[in-house]
């Protein structure tokens, strides 16, 4: 992933409704001579939409119902009480869960979290950590 792609990735912050309202209030006062107000207005709109979703009782009921529909397995897949829910256009939703991924499944070194493609590694170690382990034994 390029640096540009990383910087443009969407991330939804975990904020309370009160925190979002404070951000909106602060953004409404933000203005400078370089046209930044339009950027602030875009953020205000995004937060206002999230606040409205959180405060709508029917929306809350629906989102909670989808969260409750997720079957989790302790240690394999877990769900936060405030997990993100993305409603679909058709009946259904994506619910954000935590899935445990081992270092071997991710192809990262058990020791340093570096890439296993780094040299001649073995037993879950990258080349550098495997070399270091051999030096300790010798």
TrEMBL record:
Name under which the protein is recorded: Uncharacterized protein
